[in-house]
Design a protein that fits this description.
Blueprint (H helix, E strand, L loop, with lengths): L8 H23 L13 H6 L3 E3 L2 E3 L14 E4 L9 E4 L4 E5 L4 E6 L2 E2 L7 E10 L7 H6 L1 H4 L17 E7 L2 E8 L10 E3 L3 E2 L2 H10 L5 E4 L11
Parallel strand pairs: 4-13, 7-11, 10-12
Antiparallel strand pairs: 1-2, 3-6, 4-5, 5-6, 8-9, 8-13, 9-10
Keywords: Cell shape, Cell wall biogenesis/degradation, Glycosyltransferase, Hydrolase, Peptidoglycan synthesis, Signal, Transferase
Protein name: L,D-TPase catalytic domain-containing protein
Pathway: Cell wall biogenesis; peptidoglycan biosynthesis
């Protein structure tokens, strides 16, 4: 007659060890979590406020992400030495800055986008016209250079958020003649600090609104050449 086999100690050990195995696996999972949470970019509240969204005559200008603006391109008051009188706009396209000359050796500095090589304007001009939410028509030269992009716009584009001139435009004239160069806003904030335009000086919409409010018609504009670049700011 066969004797029944009773459960031995080995089986009991395996059952007792199972919770220990689960605990060990659980501990492994927990240790895979990052010890330090990724840092969130800090934003200066004054900069965020300066580039916040604006309701401008029914056009809602989007806020500019302050974490993506290089500190040098933030609108700011700087020390600036120049022989130009207060109220003059000095554009340094090589440094990618525009300065509004002020009293007591100061200037308001703005980051700008500038022309591609070969399309720059250099010299002096006057602001003969100011416009809010201007319309825009590509020049014949622009259409010839890139007909696929500009031919459909040959009849012009009304002012608005989709217009490449942005919220404001200052029109540069020389000797009473339109130079076809403008200082204007942009709907491409990523282009500030870069050389991408067809000749004009681009500014963030929040900045061109500020500049537009500070300068009257007839104001003088000086666009520096490479030999003059970077010499005014202390």
């Amino acid at each position: 007659m066969r004797k029944s086999i009773q459960p031995g100690p080995v089986r009991r050990v395996r059952l007792l060890a199972l919770p220990l195995v689960l605990l060990s696996l659980s501990a492994c999972v927990q240790t895979t979590k990052p010890a330090v949470e990724p840092e969130v970019a800090k934003v200066d509240p004054s900069v965020a406020s300066m580039y916040a969204a604006i309701d401008d005559g029914g056009n809602l200008i989007p806020a500019v992400d302050a974490t993506k603006i290089e500190s040098k391109n933030v609108r700011q008051l700087v020390d600036y030495q120049t022989k130009e009188p207060p109220g003059t706009i000095v554009v340094d396209p090589h440094a990618r800055f525009l300065y509004l000359v002020m009293e007591n050796g100061k200037a308001m500095r703005y980051g700008v986008g500038v022309a591609k090589a070969g399309l720059e304007f250099v010299g002096e001009a006057d602001i003969a016209r100011k416009a809010q939410w201007p319309g825009w028509t590509p020049t014949q030269d622009m259409i010839k250079r890139d007909p696929e992009r500009y031919e459909p716009l040959a009849k012009g584009l009304p002012g608005g958020l989709k217009n490449p001139l942005g919220a404001r435009a200052l029109y540069l004239y020389k000797g009473g003649q339109d130079t076809l160069y403008r200082i204007h806003g942009t709907n491409e904030p990523w282009s500030i600090g870069k050389s991408v335009s067809s000749g004009c000086i681009r500014m963030l919409n929040q900045d061109i609104i500020d500049l537009h409010s500070r300068v009257p018609k007839g104001s003088r504009v000086v666009v520096l050449g490479p030999e003059q670049s970077g010499k005014g700011e202390i």
